[in-house]
């Protein structure tokens, strides 16, 4: 995803003329992120995943999204490397943002919003460049 995002930014920003070498060149990854100053697509996905989890977690127990969130299908997984599950990703993102007691903060909406706002502003969900 990051590769696609950088490809789109390179297309939008275009080439840069290098005075030292007297030729045109494409922007490096660091130059792209320095000029764009927006969260990456991965950061946005991680933030929205936590935002949605907080919304569903505060729902009543009998609501369908709450039921589906903790549903166990009882099927076996295929051979090979297991694919990441949504709940595992949320758990890792939650630990990154709120430490060990992050699941208790979900029930208090104001505290959860404050935690997510801090995570977005401080770029806690930032993934280092490959």
What is the element layout, followed by pairings?
Layout: H1 2-13, E1 16-18, E2 23-25, H2 29-36, H3 41-57, H4 64-69, H5 86-98, H6 102-105, H7 109-121
Antiparallel strand pairs: 1-2
Helix pairs in contact: 3-5, 3-7
Key features of this structure:
single chain; mainly alpha; 2 domains; 56% helix; elongated
What would you note in describing this structure?
With 130 residues, the protein is mostly helical. The protein folds into two domains: 2-36, no CATH class; 41-121, no CATH class. The protein contains seven helices and two strands. It has a two-stranded antiparallel ribbon. Helix 3 packs across helix 5 and helix 3 packs antiparallel against helix 7 (109-121). The radius of gyration is 20 Å and the shape is elongated. The mean pLDDT is 82.
Q: Short description, anyone?
A:
By secondary structure, the chain is mainly α. Helix content is 56%, strand content 5%.
Order of helices and strands: HEEHHHHHH
Count of domain modules: 2
Number of strands: 2
Oligomeric status: single chain
The stretches of 5 or more residues where confidence is low (pLDDT under 50) are none
Strands side by side in the biggest sheet = 1-2
Shape: elongated
